[in-house]
Write a structure and sequence with these properties.
By secondary structure, the chain is an alpha/beta fold. Helices cover about 40% and strands about 20% of the residues. The strands form 3 sheets. Strands 1, 2, 8, 9, 10, 11, 17 and 18 form an 8-stranded mixed β-sheet that branches. Strand 14 and strand 15 form a beta hairpin. Helix 1 runs parallel beside helix 7, helix 2 runs parallel beside helix 7 and helix 12 runs antiparallel to helix 13. The chain is globular, with a radius of gyration of 22 Å.
């Protein structure tokens, strides 16, 4: 095809966020062209957990996720380790849905095929924007009222905009395993196991398949030592069926790896270009909010119709999920005194206070995005950590002062410009008054 084609919207990327954006615009009468240069990448290690807010957004777009291909989950079970009993965190309303990533993509591609006004062009690449705003592609120039970048963390559309943000900050590695014919301690729940160098998340994605993901520090050992590292540092904190199945995966060398990084969600586009999902920014996947944010982005963009009102709305509504993901990752991986106190306070609150459990799950599930709600939760956690530090009779006063100073730094980090970026390690000495 040569010459110039005119459509209302060009969507770059036919992953979950791109498909949702295309459906949202087409259901409002727009003509949409979806470009997907790599249709064979749907089997990659990517989003598989969709929180209730994302499920509701897809339902509004006419994509109900029904069993048996999609499995319902009622919440999470947190296993603190050290012999402590597990903590149940149920969703207040609705349920999450899980499936293999390619199952989500296949369902959304089928929805595109049923939706009038949408063309899915596989094997076609985005080559850039012309000075007059046209979209250059492998099939010629496209004149579009809006170009939607839904092409992931390495977004070509984002790179083509002026003012590209700084490079993403590396956080950790993620190792993933598929375990067949194993049971979970409580079905219809995600399970978070603490106690190792990083948390382990396990959840069912098919009737006979459980996904296990392990958060691994950047300082992980090399390929020859990684098996022993997992055996000694992670497997002791897992139930025997999961540990035995994961041991087999390690011996067969079947782990999948992904890089975890942080890019603040501040670039939602400009002019005739809008960014959705990971193209707009991303955080640590432990909170499992990637697909949910992408669907909420896409729905909001289709409702707004243009980039500027969309940018304003999603910039405001994305801050709480971003802060929450950063805080959860730090709380469950840090080993400094203050972070250990925060982690213990979180578990104690979840165990003892049903209101705090409900608030946590509203925030995590995408049903609550007010900063006041997150602020209230943070205040309760910080006060609990402070009270535990002050009343600990066995703690040296100097150690207590260091912990209190660390808590102040924790709150400063969470409310500051560098939230999401790993903090610098603690120094050797902390003054009692000069923090």
């Amino acid at each position: 095809m040569t010459g110039v084609t005119a459509v209302d919207v060009v969507v770059v990327g036919a992953g979950p966020g791109g498909c949702a954006a295309a459906l949202g615009f087409a259901r409002r009468g727009a003509t949409v062209l979806v470009l997907e240069p790599h249709p064979d990448r749907t089997a990659r290690f990517a989003g598989e957990w969709l929180h209730p807010a994302g499920v509701a957004a897809l339902s509004r777009l006419g994509v109900p996720l029904r069993p048996p291909r999609f499995l319902r989950h009622r919440g999470f079970v947190v296993h603190p380790g050290c012999g402590e009993p597990p903590i149940l965190l149920p969703y207040e309303w609705g349920s999450a849905v899980t499936a293999a990533h390619h199952t989500f993509v296949h369902e959304l591609h089928n929805a595109l095929g049923r939706q009038p006004g949408v063309e899915l062009a596989t094997g076609q690449r985005f080559l850039g924007l012309t000075p007059d705003g046209r979209c250059r592609t492998g099939r010629g120039d496209i004149a579009a009222g809006l170009v939607v970048g839904a092409d992931g963390r390495a977004s070509s559309v984002r790179r083509d905009l002026r003012g590209e943000p700084a490079r993403p900050v590396a956080l950790s590695h993620m190792a993933g395993a598929s375990l067949r014919d194993v049971s979970l301690p409580a079905e219809e729940h995600g399970h978070l196991f603490l106690g190792g160098p990083g948390p382990v998340l396990a959840y069912r994605i098919a009737a006979d398949l459980v996904r296990v993901t392990l958060d691994v520090p950047l300082t992980r050992p090399g390929a020859r030592q990684v098996g022993d590292y997992f055996e000694q540092r992670y497997l002791p904190h897992l139930p025997t069926p999961l540990g035995d199945a994961l041991r087999g995966v390690l011996r067969r060398g079947e782990l999948q790896w992904a890089a975890n990084s942080f890019r603040r969600r501040t670039n939602f586009g400009q002019g005739k270009v809008a960014l959705v999902g990971d193209a707009a920014g991303h955080g640590h996947p432990l909170a499992a909010q990637g697909m949910t944010c992408a669907f909420l982005d896409a729905e909001c963009l289709a409702e707004c119709g243009t980039a500027e009102p969309y940018r304003r709305l999603r910039s405001a509504r994305s801050r709480v999920p971003e802060l929450l993901a950063a805080a959860i990752h730090r709380a469950f991986t840090g080993e400094d005194r203050a972070t250990v106190a925060v982690r213990r306070s979180i578990c104690e609150l979840w165990r003892s206070d049903p209101r705090e459990r409900a608030r946590t799950m509203r925030l995590l599930g995408g049903q609550e995005d007010r900063r006041t709600a997150l602020g209230g939760s943070v205040a309760c956690i910080a006060l609990g950590a402070l009270a535990r530090t002050i009343t600990d009779e066995h703690r040296d006063p100097f150690d207590s002062a260091r912990t209190v100073a660390g808590l102040v730094r924790w709150l400063g980090w969470l409310g500051g410009r560098h939230v999401g970026v790993p903090p610098e390690p603690e120094g050797g000495r902390v003054a009692l008054l000069g923090l």
